[in-house]
Amino acid sequence: MTTGSLHEAIADRSATVGVLGLGYVGLPLSLAFVDAGFAVRGFDVDQYRVRELQAGLSYVDDVTDEELQRGLESGFEPSDDPSVLADCDAYVLAVPTGMDDAPDMSAIEAASRTVAEQSGPGETLVVVSSTVYPGATREVVAPIVDDARDAPTRFAMVPERLNPGGEYAFGDIPLVVGADSDRSRAIAEALFDAVVSETYPVSSTQTAELTKTLENTYRMVNIGLVNELVSLVEGMDADLWEAIDAAATKPFGFQPFRPGPGVGGHCTPIDPQFLAWRARRDGTELSLVEGAQTVNDDMPALVAERVERLLRARGVDPADASVLALGASYKPDVGDVRNSPALDVLSALPEEAAVVVADPYVDASDVPRELVRDVTPADSERADVVVLLVDHAAFDLHAIGDAADVVFDARNAMPDDVAADVVALGDLGDDPTADSRGEGLLLEGE
Ligand code: SAJ
Predict the structure, then answer these.
(1) d(CA 263, ligand 1 centre) in Å
(2) Would you name the residues annotated as active-site residues?
(3) Which of these, 408, 222, 391, 404, lies nearest to 302 by C-alpha position?
């Protein structure tokens, strides 16, 4: 359908795009729009980040300095001065959101006010790409922007699906485009069709917001399922990790998730809370979602308890123990510690215990215990127990496992042929009380 000059300006790339928030979402998105031929004005409140960008230095893992410098030469203009956003044809909000007792939309509100102040007199597209609770585009963004503008504003919600460090390139990941009118949806699709191979339109902004929160709630709940089974299989002669791999041989209807010390990061543990909060606000409850969240939140304490039990079974008072913990970030090969369950495990271990944490990536200021970057054989030998919390590829698990006495493996990542005793999450190992749980009983005639 024809949608007038804004649509044409997007089609002929004469439109100017303003991106608010130049982090792991906004920066790659800005450069993708530049590559597609748009002039892009980038705004971030963090002047240090902006100075680095202006110097051609990328702080986003998936963006090289060369890609950034090419963008700067081709029409990308980052600034911490909001006036850089004056009179853009389209704005994309890619700022952080979070959860306290209620969804933290403060950055979204601030960005909306900036758009309201800087947008020009013509028809303008405003896209929310940050993850927000279902309803936020209509309830938070639109009132702030609409109140300040006479000209028509076209709102859309296009949730980010970046796969940091993953095997999918930005342009290959389909993007969902939700809007509350055909006109808004068509204009937003035209913009994002310029940067990804497939856009998938949905009927409303709330459907797009629901899609994004559903994606990560699905992950969180299914991780909670396998985490809940950990306590069950401790009393069985069964290997949960093996069962998950075996179930994954079913070519349909099953996606493997694996147990661990909990669910960290700024997406998977947070997005489901947006849904649960929206449900409670509407007078209902997502008991399955909230139950899975509780299971995952309880995993760090369970891991710490199993480590202490393992120490006691080997005659070591946990308070006097020397512990080597492998990993502090929320997932392998990143330094991000947001909501990291590994840090929660470290906090749950006895304060008096001598705990050394090995992690090549995290900031020392983020870790409440002694931090080393590399693990020496002496580190492993000195420990009463090694606790594998994050299986960074940089760890030489063979060398660590051959030098250690015993490893509690919360990721089931230790090689099978190491010299140390290895107790995986879900296995009570040589706990002398284990027999009472039915392990070791020979069936009649075996
Ligand atoms: N985790 C498990 N067991 C699993 C998978 C994950 O315990 O089977 C834990 C991880 O150790 C981590 C947490 O859950 O602590 C979150 O892991 P994640 O793989 O969900 O990684 P995130 O939080 O970086 O999620 C993001 C999401 N991407 C977006 O929202 C755009 C998610 O949808 C992606 O699937 C994920 O990245 C990814 O695959 O990289």
Answers:
(1) 8
(2) 267
(3) 408
